Amino acid sequence: MTDLLGWRSRLPRGGPQLAALALALAANAVVSPDFFHLLLRDGRLFGSPVDILNRGAPTVLLGVGMALVIATRGIDLSVGSVMAIAGAVAAAGVAHGLPWGVSIALALGAGVACGLWNGLLVAIMGIQPIVATLVLMVAGRGVAQLITSGRILTFDEPHLLWIGGGAIAGLPVAVVVALAAAALVLLMVRRTALALFIEAVGVNPQASRLAGVPSRAVLVYVYLVSGLLAATAGVLAAADIRAADANNAGLWLELDAILAVVLGGGSLYGGRFSLGLTVVGALTLQTLKTCILRAGFPPEFNLIAMAGVVAVVLVIQSPAVGALGGRLVPRLREVRL
Amino acid sequence: MNGRNLPLAATLAVFVAAYAVCAARFPAFIGTRVPADLVTDNAFLGVIAVGMAFVVISGGIDLSVGAVMGFSSVLISLAVSRWGVPPMAAFLLAVGLGTGFGAAIGAAIHGLRAPAFIVTLTAMFLARGAGFLLTTEAVPIDHPFFRTVQDLAIRLPGGGRLGAVSLVMAAAFLAGGVLLHATRFGNSVFAIGGDRRSAELMGVPVGRTTVLVYAISGGCAALAGVVISIYTRAGNPLTGVGVELDAIAAVVIGGALLSGGVGTMLGALVGVLIQGLILTYIDFDGSLSSWWSKIATGALLFAFIGLQKLIVQLPRLSPRMAGA
Question: What is the pTM of this model?
Answer without folding.
Answer: 0.82
